[in-house]
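Structure (tokenized):
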């Protein structure tokens, strides 16, 4: 029996989340030789975007294009995913471990009565289904989970955990339309509005570079240093819970166990001690740079590069150098 994978390709306003391409690349690797990759594209006026998914690895795109999908709720999206799952006969359904993916996945698991593995950082095929690796106990340990029973298996994949493939315009594929029949049950929860967060133009979970600030900044006014470095590096701004609790920055910037989980290529922790709850949200980052005046701060245990120093001296130098690099 072949091994087909269905990917929920998250997009907003026709712009795909990076995690959609990451999941497609993983799906291609998993289906190598004996399976097909299908992507679900649900939105309003997004038909032309199907080609992007094919160039990134989809063989078939299940297209649900309807005004009802301008701001769809997760109940409707989980029903569409269920219909796509039934028609594609996929063994594995991959969704991004984003706010939306995490909302759809358990609903889909309940609809299909199949298991869901959340926040996977690795997925591989196993003798009976799949196995997936994820971090547990606030990031202190890793667990490998294996599925039992019949497919499909549902997995939410942590953004940044698997590299996306470059687009290949020579790839060909087909598009299958999925009609969006209205069902009053889908309207039990509606998305009324989507608000762009003030200041943050780069999605924290999607960012390749994250610069985070903690209590070492001493006050909210000094977050400008974090913003300046993030801007100069083309990254997003993160924060520890301590500063969020103090009201120095909005909760949506919080990285950690009770904030968002990030896995960027580069994570710069400034004036952050490295409590396990913070590490839980960033320890799988590619390269971790820590700036802390205390040489014994726990963050240095997981840092690839550590700068023991006063961030008020170190950050202006880094900002200047990063700006020079950008300009050259
Ligand atoms: P601190 O621990 O106070 O560290 C500040 C650091 O700044 C120190 O290491 C200090 O040496 C350094 N410093 C001071 N001055 C300077 C200077 N001039 N230059 C350089 N360095 C300097 N935390 C999270 O971050 N995310 C979470 O999601 C989260 N969830 C939690 C959930 C629970 C249930 C609980 C109990 C806690 C959670 N926490 C979380 C809180 C966590 O335990 C820590 O309290 C918090 O991460 C500490 O934030 P901090 O590192 O900014 O502050």
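Design, position by position:
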């Amino acid at each position: 029996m072949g091994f087909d994978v269905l990917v929920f390709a998250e997009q907003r306003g026709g712009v795909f989340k990076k995690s959609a391409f990451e999941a497609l690349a993983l799906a291609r690797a998993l289906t190598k030789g004996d399976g097909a990759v299908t992507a679900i594209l649900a939105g309003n006026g997004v038909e032309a975007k199907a080609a992007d998914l094919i160039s990134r690895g989809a063989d078939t795109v299940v297209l649900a294009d309807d005004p009802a999908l301008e701001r769809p709720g997760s109940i409707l999206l989980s029903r569409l995913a269920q219909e796509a799952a039934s028609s594609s006969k996929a063994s594995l359904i991959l969704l991004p471990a984003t706010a939306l993916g995490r909302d759809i996945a358990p609903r889909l698991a309940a609809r299909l009565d199949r298991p869901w593995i959340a926040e996977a950082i690795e997925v591989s095929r196993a003798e009976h289904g799949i196995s997936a690796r994820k971090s547990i106990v606030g990031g202190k340990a890793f667990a490998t989970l294996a599925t039992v029973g019949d497919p499909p298996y549902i997995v939410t994949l942590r953004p940044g955990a698997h590299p996306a493939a470059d687009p290949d315009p020579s790839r060909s594929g087909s598009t299958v339309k999925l009609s969006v029949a209205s069902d009053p049950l889908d309207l039990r929860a509606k998305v009324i509005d989507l608000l762009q967060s003030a200041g943050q133009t780069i999605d924290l979970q999607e960012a390749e570079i994250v610069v985070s600030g903690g209590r070492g900044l001493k006050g909210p006014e000094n977050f400008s240093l974090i913003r300046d470095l993030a801007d100069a590096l083309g990254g997003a701004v993160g924060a520890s819970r301590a500063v969020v609790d103090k009201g120095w920055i909005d909760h949506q910037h919080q990285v950690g166990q009770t904030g968002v989980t990030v896995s960027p290529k580069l994570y710069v922790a400034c004036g952050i001690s490295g409590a396990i709850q913070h590490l839980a949200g960033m320890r799988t980052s590619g390269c971790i740079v820590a700036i802390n005046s205390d040489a014994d701060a726990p963050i240095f245990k997981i840092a690839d590069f550590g700068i023991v120093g006063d961030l008020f001296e170190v950050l202006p130098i880094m900002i200047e150098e990063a700006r020079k690099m950008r300009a050259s």
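Reviewer-requested clarification: Residues 214-216, 240-243, 254-259, 271-273, 275, 277-278, 281, 291-294, 297, 310-312 surround flavin-adenine dinucleotide (CB under 6 Å). The longest helix spans residues 311-327.
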